[in-house]
Write a structure and sequence with these properties.
Elements lengths: L1 E6 L6 H15 L3 E7 L3 H8 L3 E5 L7 H7 L1 H13 L3 E5 L1 H22 L5 E3 L6
Parallel strand pairs: 1-2, 1-4, 2-3, 4-5
Helix pairs in contact: 4-5
């Protein structure tokens, strides 16, 4: 199974530790794993150290989700990534990554169903920080 984790920031905090633990465990379980992250930082460094593929995306700017959707940059980057990667599961983390990731995955899934008769990616968004 091919799993793509998406998270907004590459710093080291609770959500990043969660993504690190999930990505390393699912890789060890034999799945193909990649983490799409906004920018570079301790998370991307630690993931590369243990052999998890890291994809840097323009998600980190301090802008609102609505502005990111209206300006399309981060949304198009994620759509392009999902079309290229074709993951079975898209696991988003953080509000911005969750919104943009889910929208992008749905867009790619709808296009795949219409053109190829395939089922789109499964989308997971855990609510952190409640």
């Amino acid at each position: 199974m091919k799993i793509l984790y998406v998270i907004t920031k590459a710093n080291w905090g609770g959500a990043q530790r969660y993504v690190y633990d999930l990505a390393t465990a699912t890789k060890e379980a034999g799945h193909e794993v990649a983490v799409a992250v906004g920018g570079e930082g301790p998370l991307s460094e630690r993931l590369r150290t243990v052999g998890v593929r890291v994809i840097s995306l323009p998600l980190r700017q301090r802008r609102t989700f609505l502005l990111d959707v209206v300006t399309f940059g981060p949304l198009f980057s994620l759509v392009r990534l999902l079309r290229d990667e074709r993951p079975d599961v898209v696991h988003t983390n953080s509000a911005k990554a969750g919104g943009l990731g889910a929208l992008s995955a749905r867009l790619v899934g709808v296009l795949a169903r219409r053109s190829l008769g395939e089922v789109g990616p499964r989308i997971i968004f855990p609510a952190h920080g409640w």
